[in-house]
Model the fold of this input.
Amino acid sequence: MTFATSRIAGLGVFLPENTRSTAQTELDLRAANPGLRLATGLIHRLTGVERVHLRDDNWQTSDLAVAASGIALAESPGDIDLVIFASASQDLIEPATSHIVAAKLDLDCPVMDVKNACNSMLNGLQVADALISSGQYGRVLVASGEAPTSGVRWSLKDHAQFIRSFPGYTMSDGGAAVVLEATDDSRTGIIDSRFHAVSKHWDIGTLPTGGSVNPRGGDDSFFDMDGAGLQAAFMELGPGPVIDLLERNGLDWDDFDLVAIHQVALPYLPPIFDRLGVASDKSVIVVADHGNLASVALPLQLQLARDEGKVGPGSLVLFIGLAGGISLGLMVVRL
Done:
């Protein structure tokens, strides 16, 4: 049996109460690197980030995903046929973190992991939608637990290493979960999605540890990113893929109640909005108060938009995901 689409039946976001201000981050960096001259307020001026969320020391990525999943499942109770853990982070290389999430939720169903940096959650929804639409599953839990703060470098050799480590100081821990379920109502659910990649830029931003290139970690256990290079690569993509998606579905910007876009730094957003031609008030700004939450950022924007009354049943939402690698993810959803 096949269905026209799948719909979002439950949503959950979990943000740890423990936070670290950007001012504290700069104090800690200066204390750890007394021989390195770091300009006061530099991180805040360049990113606009006020604080980041920090998971408890004994919490793993699976715990963040489980906390968010509990909220989503409370909103949409019922059997789950498949668990997809979709995150840039993971508990272990083996087994798949989805096993750990399912065990902690006491779920007895198939599982899999989907990983594509900050687009992991969107790709997880893409996979879940395809499996539901083909009739293989009726209800899928897509959960993310992001713990990028473990990859932040505090001991620096020189200013050049600080610049390469810079984006990590704005990254934040959190969890998100979506219950996706089958529906034959074509007026709701995932309407369309498109994904693009320019993989020649894969080395612009890396966390180069734990794989065959560097299995033992060591000094490569931290983020190494060319922030300016990432921004330039994303801008190089241009508005074409987004405009094509809108035209294919007969939509324009006025049709959307929310345009949720991945947010890395506050100053990056106006050029992106200008390039796309979308009004900034269509989005919910989260990066200033919550930092870069990787794949949790888009679900958080949807949750906050619901809380603020910007969206509800029948609202049209566009998700725009940007991820290292680099990749662009687009998804149109009718709530």
About this structure: The longest helix spans residues 61-75. The chain has two domains: 5-183, 189-334. Residues 261 and 320 are 5 Å apart (CA to CA). The chain has a mean pLDDT of 92.
